[in-house]
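User: I'm preparing a small set of examples for a lab meeting where we compare how different chains pack in three dimensions. I only have the primary sequence for this one, and I'd like the structure in token form so I can line it up with the others. Please keep the answer compact; I'll paste it straight into my notes.
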Amino acid sequence: MNTNILHTKIQEFINTNLDANVASLLLKGIAFDSVEAKEVIEQLEAKKRCKTKLQTWFSTEAIYYPNKLNIEQTSSETTAKYKASLVQGNTIIDLTGGFGVDCFYFSKHFKQVTHCEINEQLSQIVTHNYKQLQVTNITTIAQDGLEYLKATDATFDWIYIDPSRRHDSKGKVFFLKDCLPNVPAHLELLFNKANNVLIKTSPLLDISIGLKELQHVKSIHIVAVNNEVKELLWTLKKDYTKPVTIETCNLKKNTTETFAFQLQEESTATSNYSTPLAYLYEPNAAIMKSGAFHTIANQLHVFKLHQHSHLYTKDSLIDFPGRAFKIEKIMPYNKKLLKKEGYTKANIATRNFPESVEQIRKKHKIKDGGDIYLFFTTDLENNKIVIQTKKVA
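Assistant: Understood. Below is the structure token output for the 393-residue chain.
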């Protein structure tokens, strides 16, 4: 960590050139005696990545940034706030602290937070930044979190861990045992030090696989931001044996869509089916990840179009965790009929349909955009149909 980076002139240069072309800057030359051009560019690129992801850090003076890979791997403020809202108490320890965004928000819900980070330089950076952010209840430890946990006599209300997938497991089935640290192998240690454990995993992890590897899972939170699933959060409680609750959350700019159910419900639930009625409903990405295809139909009293289509319909407009559309027209999938309708531009989605969006666009010469939304899907009679809709504001 080169603290000369924090000198006023260098910080002014970084802030002035956030939108500049890096190659052009290097060509012109970056001449500061106390820092190398490479260090300045690393700070500039990392800070730029924080503009929307970490606005608090971006807008705070004299923040020191790690390399851009650390920024890519860290939680966003949006997901960190949600994560912190799930836990509270006197003490929490983050075994895989990273850039410290999660701990920053944990500090608003706990009296004392411990941040462990095996990378000594990154730990120094985080310590400096907490001072700039005026946070006083976080202790930073430059040590492997599990090793610190083994050595300390302290116990905690919560343990938080964000295991990273090992590079040699790419392309293989995603198991928690293939991550660093190996959480399933250390569950006994974790429960010896805390009654509650919060684990963050990639959305790539199959929920059924995670449940087989872990014990005492109380709930699983599927967190999406603007309809893109960002992370799975697993809460474990010591000796917990009751049913697992699935909480889906889609964090949007002005609203939050939530839907909750007990995992065992889906295995016994059945849906009612119907031809398309007045409105069409498309579940958000978090619900799609949860697999609650029958449960949502039961809870919200909507009809499925087909067992495998995962589109829903109802005669009335309801508050639905996803997108809602007014159905304007239903037609069989036929090239001549589509040509007759004269679609030149439309938003296209496919559900349980043999052709991809790209194939449909190319085949029927329909460009992306406009106010028309076309759903290519399969109906109750296994017929391929096209549903013309308009999005409900």
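A couple of notes for your slides: The longest helix spans residues 37-53. Residues 69 and 393 are 38 Å apart (CA to CA).

User: Perfect, thanks.
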